[in-house]
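Hi Y.,

Following your request, here is the sequence exactly as I used it, all 110 residues.
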Amino acid sequence: MKDMIAYCGLDCEACAAYLATVHDDQALRERTASLWAELNHAPILPEHINCRGCRVDGVKTVYCDSLCPIRQCALKKGAATCGDCPEVDRCQTVGAIFSTRPEARENLKG
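Below is the corresponding structure, written out as C-alpha cells. Let me know if you'd prefer a different format.
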C-alpha cells in the first residue's frame, strides 16, 4: 500500500490540503479553508490548510494531526491503517467514511 493512503483509506494525494501544500497554491488554500469552514461550522483559515499526509512525517492540518478520531485510534493501536485492525468491519467511525467513499475500503486492501 502506498504511504499516501490515510489510516481510513482515503487517498491523501487527492486531498485539497495536500495539493495546496505540495504545490504551494494559495488560491487552493483559500478555497479549501472557506469550504471546510462552512462544512464544519468552524473558523478554518487558509494558513490552516497545510498537510503532507496523515501517515507520513511533516505538517498536517489541525484536524488530521490531533482531532481525527480514526488517526488517533490507529496510532493508539499501533495499526499501519484501519485495514490492519480486526474491528474494521464493525467500526462505526471508519464505517462512516466507507459509506460515502467506498474506494477507501478498497484502498486499504491494496
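The radius of gyration is 14 Å.

Thanks again,
Q.
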